[in-house]
Amino acid sequence: MLLQELWLRKLDWDELLPMQLQTSWEAFKATLLQLPKVKVTRFVHTDPQVPIEIHGFADASMRAYGAGIYVRTQTAEGVKSAKHLFLRTVGHDLLTAEELGTLLASVEAVLNSRPIGALSSDPSDGEALTPGHLLIGGPLVAPPPSALPDQISPTCLRLWRSVSSLRHRFWQRWSREYVSSLQTRQKWSKEVHNVDVGALVVVGEDNLPPQQWRIGRVVEVHVGADGKVRVADVKTADGVYRRAIHRLALLPMLS
Question: Whole-prediction pTM value?
Answer without folding.
Answer: 0.59
